[in-house]
Write a structure and sequence with these properties.
Blueprint: H1 2-22, H2 32-39, E1 55-58, H3 62-70, E2 74-77, H4 79-84, H5 87-100, E3 105-111, E4 116-120, H6 121-129, H7 138-143, E5 155-157, E6 163-165
Parallel strand pairs: 1-3
Antiparallel strand pairs: 2-4, 3-4, 5-6
């Protein structure tokens, strides 16, 4: 009986882990919809305006991240946490930051990772000028595809016969 349980466990968990890795969102496979879902916030208080959302910047390279840390920037929300929050919860979180952080703090969100950083406004300006932070421009956002084309080799069916798409990993043919 135990081998059957182990085999069932492996069959149920291994494909999920592979699919999760295969769906890693990058700038190369991100769509306009993905961008909007990551950056969207809504007022958390009825009748009140929303707090300013974090400014969208391109994902950091290792060198960019080090430059932000050297400027005393701090990651205040991990991307996986931000992405699981509702737009209202994101606004509420931004409100908490505004009430507890230093007045001249700039918030940025790495897109597509979703990591949110708090950076002193003066240091933020220096990082922008040195190109260690690169903002997403309107033109770049408009150039994002509405959808990402997926080849037939990247589609499979689940048990009910419904096609399931996944993104191609960078090293995958």
């Amino acid at each position: 009986m135990r081998p059957l349980i182990l085999i069932t466990f492996l069959l149920l968990t291994v494909p999920v882990g592979v699919a999760a890795h295969a769906d890693k969102l990058t700038e190369a496979n991100m769509t306009e919809k993905d961008f909007k879902e990551i950056t969207h916030t809504e007022s958390s208080e009825p009748g009140a305006s929303r707090y300013p959302p974090p400014e969208a910047v391109h994902n950091f390279s290792d060198a960019n991240e080090q430059a932000v840390k050297d400027a005393h920037g701090a990651k205040v929300v991990k991307g996986r946490d931000w992405k699981t929050m509702s737009p209202k919860d994101r606004d509420k979180k931004m409100g908490e930051f505004k009430k507890t952080m230093k007045y001249a703090t700039q918030y940025v969100i790495e897109v597509p990772s979703g990591d949110v950083w708090a950076i002193d406004e003066t240091e933020y300006t220096k990082l922008i000028n040195s190109k260690d932070l690169k903002r997403w421009t309107k033109e770049e956002q408009e150039k994002l595809p509405k959808a990402v084309k997926r080849g037939p080799s990247l589609t499979h069916s689940d048990r009910s016969g419904t096609p399931v798409d996944r993104f191609r990993d960078e090293g995958e043919p």
